[in-house]
């Protein structure tokens, strides 16, 4: 891919397109557009960073209502082990490669503050990665291979080894972090790059994914086929509403593995979805979109144009959640959030959603990334969200189910920071 022509694109759309391209030419395009932006440096004391790689919330900014505000730019870098340092009789090379990975990641932590304004990242490992070792993952880690979860989907699976998730408000930060990790930069935010991942990991270019989230960003993509002009101006997500309210998100504690060698880790699920946005906006009224997103009891005043009237909650009552089945039968429509909330435990959500919009493949979609303690928690939520049990008549009335299409799925273990570099299934 080459950097697109600036002409005709808004600045934010151009920068998004540049992140999607990646590499040195993308970094210079960012600099031409924005100049060099001051980005806060990180820390020389790795012990000052949290044990959890996924400890992002307390470092993220919040919106006016106090909900966590995710970074604007995201890159998912798919990694495959170059040689197999974990192969037979290769203990020494595994040790060396582990040090290389750890030191490369620490370079990023020294370079950038752990925040929206700096860089947040995680590295996760697939079940295929762990398959090469003789031992099995401990029982405290629930990490099955990904699978198709409904009869409407036939996804491809992430069967490479690892996935790096880079996130920042600054496009050049995610781009530079990626390039620094792959030996393309001598310094990153003033920090010398002495170690990088080349030789340990290969980047899988064709599996690289990118995305963006934030008020106004989706509406800037109406140049992409399948993104209608009717996407609301201020919406942070393509389907037109705010998402990720504090009260409908699991806490980081809830999604953290508690015991065993991977305590302080989490599991990560990633579904890459296409969205049929033109039908969603052109055949449905705002009132219908409100009902299908939230519940048939929600009205336009309660929600507002893009969910601005909701503060830290999607407004679902326990009664509305309990009524999902009868709403399907009697009213012929159920809400996406209403259905999914059936999987709450003791009234609390069990997955932490960190999804973002994408136009990878030049089509609108979502990289639906969720964190949970056990993959089984995701499966329960996805089952509730699918709502195959609901007698709703036509699929278009089953929340947003009829508008989303899963193309890929991957399951990952995010080890605690202490074991994030090439973990064996039973690290010390
Ligand atoms: C294009 C894809 C999707 C979009 C645009 C979307 C959008 C939304 C919105 C607007 C809400 C209500 C606001 C909130 O509660 O934060 C919501 C809630 C939720 N969604 Fe999604 N969603 C998508 C996919 C999924 C998928 C695939 C799952 C699960 C597997 C899921 C699970 C949930 C859950 C668990 C809630 C909160 C329910 C609760 O309050 O307990 N969503 N989503």
Automatic annotation (TrEMBL):
<dbReference type="Pfam" id="PF24152">
    <property type="entry name" value="DUF7405"/>
</dbReference>
<dbReference type="InterPro" id="IPR011008">
    <property type="entry name" value="Dimeric_a/b-barrel"/>
</dbReference>
<dbReference type="InterPro" id="IPR055828">
    <property type="entry name" value="DUF7405"/>
</dbReference>
<protein>
    <recommendedName>
        <fullName>Deferrochelatase/peroxidase EfeB</fullName>
    </recommendedName>
</protein>
<dbReference type="InterPro" id="IPR006311">
    <property type="entry name" value="TAT_signal"/>
</dbReference>
């Amino acid at each position: 891919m080459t950097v697109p022509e600036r002409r005709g694109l808004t600045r934010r759309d151009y920068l998004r397109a540049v992140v999607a391209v990646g590499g040195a030419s993308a970094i210079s395009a960012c600099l031409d557009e924005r100049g060099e932006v001051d980005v806060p440096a990180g820390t020389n004391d790795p012990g000052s960073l949290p044990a959890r790689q996924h400890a992002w919330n307390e470092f993220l900014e919040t919106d006016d209502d106090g909900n966590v505000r995710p970074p604007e730019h995201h890159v998912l870098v798919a990694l495959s082990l170059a040689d197999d340092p974990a192969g037979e009789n290769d203990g020494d090379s595994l040790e060396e490669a582990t040090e290389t990975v750890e030191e490369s990641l620490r370079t990023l932590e020294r370079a950038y503050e752990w925040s929206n304004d700096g860089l947040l990242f995680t590295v996760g490992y697939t079940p295929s990665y762990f398959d090469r070792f003789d031992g099995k993952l401990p029982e405290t880690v629930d990490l099955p291979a990904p699978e198709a979860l409904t009869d409407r989907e036939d996804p491809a699976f992430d069967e490479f080894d690892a996935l790096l998730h880079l996130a920042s408000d600054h496009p050049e930060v995610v781009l530079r972090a990626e390039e620094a990790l792959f030996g393309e930069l001598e310094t990153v935010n003033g920090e010398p790059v002495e170690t990088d991942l080349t030789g340990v990991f290969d980047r899988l270019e064709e599996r690289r994914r990118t995305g963006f989230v934030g008020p106004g960003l989706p509406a800037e993509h109406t140049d992409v086929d399948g993104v209608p002009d009717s996407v609301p101006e201020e919406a942070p997500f393509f389907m037109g509403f705010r998402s990720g309210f504090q009260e409908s998100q699991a806490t980081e504690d809830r999604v953290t593995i508690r015991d065993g060698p991977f305590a302080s880790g989490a599991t990560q699920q990633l579904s890459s979805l296409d969205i049929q946005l033109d039908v969603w906006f052109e055949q449905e009224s705002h009132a219908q979109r409100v009902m299908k997103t939230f519940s048939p009891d929600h009205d336009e005043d309660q929600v507002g144009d893009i969910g601005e009237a909701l503060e830290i909650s999607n407004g679902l009552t326990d009664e509305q959640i309990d009524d999902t089945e009868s709403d399907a039968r009697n009213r012929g429509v159920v809400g996406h959030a209403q259905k999914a909330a059936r999987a709450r435990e003791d009234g609390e959500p069990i997955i932490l959603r960190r999804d973002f919009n994408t136009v990878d493949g030049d089509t609108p979609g979502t990289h639906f990334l969720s964190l949970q303690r056990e993959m089984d928690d995701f499966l329960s939520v996805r089952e509730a969200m699918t709502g195959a049990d609901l007698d709703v008549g036509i699929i278009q009335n089953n929340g947003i189910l009829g508008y989303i299409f899963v193309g890929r799925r991957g399951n990952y273990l995010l080890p605690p920071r202490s074991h994030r570099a090439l973990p064996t299934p039973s690290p010390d």
